[in-house]
Design brief:
Blueprint lengths: L2 E6 L5 E7 L7 E6 L7 H11 L3 E6 L15 H11 L4 H19 L5 E6 L1 H12 L4 E5 L4 H6 L8 E6 L7 H11 L4 E5 L16 H18 L9
Parallel strand pairs: 3-4, 3-5, 5-6, 6-7, 7-8
Antiparallel strand pairs: 1-2, 2-4
Protein name: Dienelactone hydrolase domain-containing protein
InterPro entries: AB_hydrolase_fold, Dienelactn_hydro, Dienelactone_hydrolase-like
Organism: Tistrella mobilis
Amino acid sequence: MGEFIRLDAATGTSISAWHATPRQPARAGLVVLQEIFGVNAHIRGVADRLALPGYEVVAPALFDRVAPDTELGYGPEDLKRGIELKGQVPDDEALTYVAAAVDRLRARHGAAFPVGVVGFCWGGSLAYLAAAKLSIDAAVSYYGGQVPKYLDEGIKPVAPLLVHLGGRDGHIPAGPTADKLRVTAPGAEIYVHPQAGHGFNCEARPDYRPEEARYAMEVTLRFLDRRLSGPRRPPI
């Protein structure tokens, strides 16, 4: 089990974050990025599970400046509130919190400590941006709704990238998005899960697909094992 800590962003804003540590010495760091529902039980659970194979994990509370301690469920009113809050946190601001989490991990373990980012939904979009704009060593994007927009804008990832898409996701056209990724991010690893919808990794959502979630996490852990072994990538 993890615990909440404080993070100080370069902008001077202080936010909370869930911090999960492994029992053994950390092999690398991970920043887990929330959906639009806050650092809720699902995101904390993901962070705790990712600590088990030896990662030190920080999940920043991206809504803290506008609505501290936000923790939403998955009903219609929760969705409405999450969309409202997301609209108050621009991408560039959210990335300062991601960077603060990365810096926190490297401050604890040294500048050469490899750090990856794993994000879901809104966090999946931010993971893609982090791969393009931050000095990280790997990024995993689960069904990031803004990824097609970023591709259209020509935003190219620099860090190694893994993307999970649901073939039945009503929010993200999986086929066209995968095609655009192959052009804009030719080195990206892309997995389209044909029977999965949006949010298929989350056990609290109607679209939860346990088999696809299990397989996607296996793929994710193999990717992270490859990309976060050894010294970090040169800074950008």
